[in-house]
Amino acid sequence: VGESEKLLVGQKVFAIGNPFGLDQTITAGIISALGREIKSITGRLIRNMIQTDAAINPGNSGGPLLDSAGRLIGVNTAIFSPSGAYAGIGFAVPVKEVNRVIPQLIRSGKLVKPGIGASLADARLVKRLGLEGVLILGVEPGGPAHKAGLRPTRQFGNEVVLGDVILRIAGKNVHSFDDVRTELERFKVGEEVTITILREGERLEVILRLTALDN
After folding, report:
1. pTM
2. 3-state class (DSSP) for residue 110
3. CB 27 within 8 A of CB 56
4. Most CB atoms within 10 A, among 11, 64, 160, 191?
């Protein structure tokens, strides 16, 4: 197992997999770019991907991306291709992320994700309202957000009172649900995190202890 923090664009890499059922196939290329963002089939953004021009086709997913010393630096995951076949742009999950996730999968059979116990508004709604940050729509009774006193969006008759807006998590600005999820995943369930919110025009900081998401 190698490292993914010190990779360089132009570095030689090799991909091993089972493209189109042709098992034990190896292809060679370079790292084309680092820190790429791609959208998964569920619509979620996947950040910090390794981009490579090593030939990756259907059947390569889950196979290793190796450096020139044969060390694992990533797991091949997706390609960008209008035709569905190799077009010179492939993506791999960096080994740092693999090292974080695999022990949890082995231990519990699933990835335990940290959360704050709140439902958040779609970024398009926040933009229409002219707000910056992530609007809280609801809070789970007894959850971290509820215990920290975060306010949900409420309706009184025909009047809607907006809830707190999350501006920063642990000092990092957030603008969408994906941003919130990405920042929270840097922490473990049970850890405390500082969240900066906007409430009635005033910035406040609250500390809450992360809980495990149900899914």
Report:
1. 0.64
2. coil
3. yes
4. 64
